[in-house]
Amino acid sequence: MAEELKDLLEKLSVSEEESKRVFSFSRFLSNSKGHEAWVIGKVMSNEKINKEVMYRVLRSMWFTKEVVNFVELKEKVILVKLRDVDVRKRLLNLNPWLFDQNLFSLTSYVKDKEIEEYIFNLSPFWVRLYNIPFDQMDRKIVLKVGETIGEVMAIDWRDRDGGWIEYIRVKVKIDILKPLRRVVYFVGKEDAEIVCAIKYERFPAFCYKCGIVGHKTQKCILEGGQKELY
Ligand SMILES: [Zn+2]
User: Fold this and answer.
1) Residue 210 has pLDDT above 90, yes or no
2) Do 213 and 205 form a contact (C-beta atoms < 8 A)?
3) How far, in Å, is the centroid of ligand 1 from the Cα of 3?
4) pLDDT value for 72
5) Which of 4, 12, 98, 130: CA 20 to 30 A from 215?
6) Quick check: 66 and 82 in contact, CB under 8 A?
7) Which fold has domain 25-117?
8) CA angle 132, 156, 183 (to 5 degrees)
9) pLDDT tens by residue, 93-135
10) Exposure pattern of 200-215 as b/e (b: 16+ CB <10 Å)?
11) Tens digits of per-residue pLDDT, 29-57?
12) How far is the CA of 113 from the centre of ligand 1 (A)?
């Protein structure tokens, strides 16, 4: 078998496609000690990013005294070596992180997990729901309305007992590869239909034409025939 293989390899002429190398993910991580505190992120944008500036801004926003190392593993996919699991917890809780209106989608690093297996398109956002009638504003209704946007992770009732509130905040995991939802039609008492407006807090730039995050209206990917998102 070994002889056969040797023979075959000698005769082989490698096509361009075949000559593309497969890189081991772990070659970047000669020392994965302390990986329990690491995170991995992807810049979900078609815009050109100055990474050095981005790293600097993130470091200052994260407000951490320890050294933070950034390692680009693949275009726009960046490993962030934090030193403290509590810092990691805090940063993930405070998702989403935006740089210059671009989303840096952050998730936990998992040892030996391939880059392709990470899910970056699902990101939590705080969303304001307007117009839900006050007398019908209960947990069930809020969950129902919230779930039309994405998976509801938390509800912020704000000052419910204090009387009138203008909106409710919900933390929702949103698939940013899908067009953004801007309203929810709510059918309330006596079949009265109400349009609930949705406002996204701290949201990255998105296209008003196709409703997808990561490019601006002037550069709509649907128009230019560009298939690749990010
Ligand atoms: Zn577009």
Assistant:
1) no
2) yes
3) 55
4) 95
5) 130
6) yes
7) Alpha-Beta Plaits (3.30.70)
8) 35
9) 999 999 999 999 999 999 999 999 999 999 999 999 998 887 7
10) beebbbbbebeebbbb
11) 556 678 999 999 999 998 889 999 999 99
12) 32
Query: What secondary structure, in 3-state letters, does 99-158 show?
Result: ECCEEEEEEECCCCCCHHHCCCCEEEEEEEEECCCHHHCCHHHHHHHHHCCCEEEEEECC
Answer yes or no: CATH 2.60.460 is held by domain 122-224: no
Q: Over 90: is that where the pLDDT of 165 sits?
A: no
Contacts of 35 by beta carbon, 8 Å cutoff, 6+ apart: 29, 109, 111
The whole-angstrom separation of Cα 142 and Cα 69 is 40
Cβ-based neighbours of 77, under 8 Å, separated by 6 or more:
40, 41, 42, 115, 118, 120
CA of 165 to the centre of ligand 1 (A): 34
CB 217 within 8 A of CB 208: yes
Residue in the block written with tokens 């497969």: 22
Cα–Cα dist 40/72, whole Å:
10
Ligand 1 centroid–CA 37 distance in Å is: 36
Comma-separated ranges of CATH 3.30.70.330 domains in the chain: 25-117
For residue 174, the CA-to-ligand 1 centroid distance in Å is 17
Neighbours of ion ligand 1 (CB under 5 A): 207, 209-210, 220
Q: How far is the CA of 193 from the centre of ligand 1 (A)?
A: 30
